[in-house]
Amino acid sequence: MKKHNFSAGPCILPQSVLQKASEAVLNFDGLDLSLIEISHRSKNFVNVMDRARELALEHLGLQNKGYQALFLQGGASMEFLMVAFNFLETRAGYINTGTWSDKAIKEAKLFGDVVEVASSKGANFNYIPKDYQIPSGLDYLHCTSNNTIFGTQINNFPETDCPLICDMSSDIFSRVLDFSKFDLIYAGAQKNMGPAGTTLVVVKEEVLGQVSRKIPSMMDYKVHISKDSMFNTPAVFPVYVSMLTLEWLKELGGVATIEKNNNKKAELLYNEIDRNPLFKGFVANKEDRSKMNATFSLVNEDHKLDFDTLWTEAGINGLNGHRSVGGYRASMYNALSIESVQVLVDVMKEIEKKA
Ligand code: PMP
């Protein structure tokens, strides 16, 4: 039996997707060739790329709205600098809600001035800042929708008159938002989409081409758009698996359906964290809690050995928290079933009885 995989990323993917992906590695499209040994220029792969790009826009409700979807390489970390390369002329604003925002800020500072519009760094990122003033004249404002390490998630996105850019690596396709509020969205594949190795970038074409600097081709979103996301050899396997996952999501009923599942899973686990006297949540305000990554710890570390033994024996994987937070982190990405969350909740109840 498969483990209950609460890993933060790379993480759980739908079993049917893994099955199809493994078949395509042996024999893709009935070609008697592997997906990973055919030309990326072949009609069969170009169809995959086109379909993946189309599905990404469809799930975000951004078809025929002037947006382009790209599957690039270098991870979300590459987007930290590509964003600045393509948009930062003088001054950009960043909302600092975690390690990944912090890293994005560091890269942007190589290209121009960075204003930290708001930050929760002083409280080890245990909340989402609100009620901040956004200065005028920014080239763009950058935020991180879900903070994978700390387990916080933005619910109310800033209203701006400058381009709004968002790192959605760990909650893309998990909830319905008005995605047309954003001018550029990026997300590493390895949470809700596919294996590590490709990054989805969704960008509104009209906001590009505003900086005066010369941009190397590989760093230039316009170049990738002009080549239909095939400027160089794309990460064929990660793009294919992402396409399969996006098809799976569509068959399931799309983002609105998965959001209902995600809400139920998060409610089940957070209710137990709040009810069970042995545990406490990490996030300061309940409204900032992430539906993707729940961070919590034992009130009394004396129970650690028993708890760790119980969840390991129950077939749970990937529950240890990030070293900068400690405790536990249950990542409940799209492909995780509510039954797996129930197994974790049962273990939490069991340890309470034993204590
Ligand atoms: N942003 C967020 C929100 C992340 O969770 C991560 C990685 N988990 C990254 C950026 C960095 O992604 P990558 O490792 O693909 O560069």
UniProtKB/TrEMBL annotation:
<protein>
    <recommendedName>
        <fullName>Phosphoserine aminotransferase</fullName>
        <ecNumber>2.6.1.52</ecNumber>
    </recommendedName>
</protein>
<dbReference type="GO" id="GO:0005737">
    <property type="term" value="C:cytoplasm"/>
</dbReference>
<keyword id="KW-0963">Cytoplasm</keyword>
<feature type="binding site">
    <location>
        <position position="167"/>
    </location>
    <ligand>
        <name>pyridoxal 5'-phosphate</name>
    </ligand>
</feature>
<keyword id="KW-0718">Serine biosynthesis</keyword>
<dbReference type="GO" id="GO:0008615">
    <property type="term" value="P:pyridoxine biosynthetic process"/>
</dbReference>
<feature type="binding site">
    <location>
        <position position="41"/>
    </location>
    <ligand>
        <name>L-glutamate</name>
    </ligand>
</feature>
<dbReference type="InterPro" id="IPR022278">
    <property type="entry name" value="Pser_aminoTfrase"/>
</dbReference>
<keyword id="KW-0663">Pyridoxal phosphate</keyword>
<keyword id="KW-0664">Pyridoxine biosynthesis</keyword>
<feature type="binding site">
    <location>
        <begin position="232"/>
        <end position="233"/>
    </location>
    <ligand>
        <name>pyridoxal 5'-phosphate</name>
    </ligand>
</feature>
<keyword id="KW-0028">Amino-acid biosynthesis</keyword>
<feature type="binding site">
    <location>
        <position position="190"/>
    </location>
    <ligand>
        <name>pyridoxal 5'-phosphate</name>
    </ligand>
</feature>
<dbReference type="GO" id="GO:0004648">
    <property type="term" value="F:O-phospho-L-serine:2-oxoglutarate aminotransferase activity"/>
</dbReference>
<feature type="domain" description="Aminotransferase class V">
    <location>
        <begin position="5"/>
        <end position="344"/>
    </location>
</feature>
<comment type="subunit">
    <text>Homodimer.</text>
</comment>
<dbReference type="InterPro" id="IPR015424">
    <property type="entry name" value="PyrdxlP-dep_Trfase"/>
</dbReference>
<dbReference type="Pfam" id="PF00266">
    <property type="entry name" value="Aminotran_5"/>
</dbReference>
<dbReference type="GO" id="GO:0006564">
    <property type="term" value="P:L-serine biosynthetic process"/>
</dbReference>
<feature type="modified residue" description="N6-(pyridoxal phosphate)lysine">
    <location>
        <position position="191"/>
    </location>
</feature>
<keyword id="KW-0032">Aminotransferase</keyword>
<dbReference type="InterPro" id="IPR015422">
    <property type="entry name" value="PyrdxlP-dep_Trfase_small"/>
</dbReference>
<comment type="pathway">
    <text>Amino-acid biosynthesis; L-serine biosynthesis; L-serine from 3-phospho-D-glycerate: step 2/3.</text>
</comment>
<dbReference type="InterPro" id="IPR015421">
    <property type="entry name" value="PyrdxlP-dep_Trfase_major"/>
</dbReference>
<feature type="binding site">
    <location>
        <begin position="76"/>
        <end position="77"/>
    </location>
    <ligand>
        <name>pyridoxal 5'-phosphate</name>
    </ligand>
</feature>
<dbReference type="GO" id="GO:0030170">
    <property type="term" value="F:pyridoxal phosphate binding"/>
</dbReference>
<comment type="function">
    <text>Catalyzes the reversible conversion of 3-phosphohydroxypyruvate to phosphoserine and of 3-hydroxy-2-oxo-4-phosphonooxybutanoate to phosphohydroxythreonine.</text>
</comment>
<feature type="binding site">
    <location>
        <position position="100"/>
    </location>
    <ligand>
        <name>pyridoxal 5'-phosphate</name>
    </ligand>
</feature>
<dbReference type="InterPro" id="IPR020578">
    <property type="entry name" value="Aminotrans_V_PyrdxlP_BS"/>
</dbReference>
<dbReference type="InterPro" id="IPR000192">
    <property type="entry name" value="Aminotrans_V_dom"/>
</dbReference>
<feature type="binding site">
    <location>
        <position position="148"/>
    </location>
    <ligand>
        <name>pyridoxal 5'-phosphate</name>
    </ligand>
</feature>
<keyword id="KW-0808">Transferase</keyword>
<comment type="similarity">
    <text>Belongs to the class-V pyridoxal-phosphate-dependent aminotransferase family. SerC subfamily.</text>
</comment>
<comment type="pathway">
    <text>Cofactor biosynthesis; pyridoxine 5'-phosphate biosynthesis; pyridoxine 5'-phosphate from D-erythrose 4-phosphate: step 3/5.</text>
</comment>
